[in-house]
Amino acid sequence: MTLRELLIQRAARLQEYPALTAPGWGALRYPQFRNRVEGIALGLVLRDRDRLHCAGPGPWAWACEVACACCGLVWEAGAEVEPELLGGSLYNADEGRQAYHDREHDVRETTPFTGGLDHGEVVRRLRRLNGHLGWDHGTAVVLPLAEASSPEGRAALWSALYGGSHAILEASAVPGWDPGPFKGFWSA
């Protein structure tokens, strides 16, 4: 399974369930989150890149990371994503999202994703982690917005997606947020 297939499956199976709640976004159900991610992915594909960097917390950084995975780009921590990649004219091209959909066959389990890990290895790690966490579509995962781009926060968000859980980003500190289970997730 690839990370792209993971998003597609969750959006198909969990249509009425919330995927992400974040300041300024409200609550997005799984199909709405997939739509936002695919719109960003279209912008990335049209820019013809092979890598993307993002820094800073927030739902846009998370959506960009998932978009990178969905179109087979490598994700690296680094400089911020240019705002025009997050919306505007590239978000929905006049001819539709065919350029994004054409990349479907280029994304495989062996496609590199981040830090020397490919899609297949990230999914295997998510499967093991979720076995430990036991998250499912009834789980609300609350974490501080400021942690969304930390390695542990990113692993928690991916784990929430894998489990079909509701990820909630809070602008303030979150009592009880424990990054411990996610430490070392991204180590190659």
Descriptive report:
The chain is of the alpha/beta class and 188 residues long. The chain has a single domain, classed as ANL, N-terminal domain (Rossmann fold), CATH 3.40.50. The chain contains 6 helices and 8 strands; from the N terminus they run αββαβαβαββαβαβ. The protein has helices at residues 3-13, 30-46, 59-70, 98-101, 119-133, 151-163, and strands at 18-22, 26-29, 51-54, 74-77, 112-114, 117-118, 140-144, 166-170. Strands 2-1-8-7 form a 4-stranded mixed beta sheet. A two-stranded parallel ribbon has the order 3-4. Helix 5 packs across helix 6 (151-163). The radius of gyration is 15 Å and the shape is globular. 39% of the residues are buried.
**Rg from alpha-carbon coordinates:** 15 Å
- Reading off the top of the CATH hierarchy, the class is best stated as Alpha Beta
Assembly state: single chain
Amino-to-carboxy terminus distance: 19 Å
The helix-strand sequence is: HEEHEHEHEEHEHE
Number of domains: 1
What do we call the CATH topology? Answer: Rossmann fold
Gross geometry:
globular
Mean pLDDT: 88
Note the beta-strand portion: 15-25%
Report the total helices: 6
The CATH H-level homologous superfamily: ANL, N-terminal domain
What structural class do helix, strand and pairing data support? Answer: alpha/beta
List the strand order in the largest sheet.
2-1-8-7
**Architecture (CATH level 2) name:** 3-Layer(aba) Sandwich
What is the tally of beta strands? 8
Summarize this structure briefly.
By secondary structure, this protein is an alpha/beta fold.
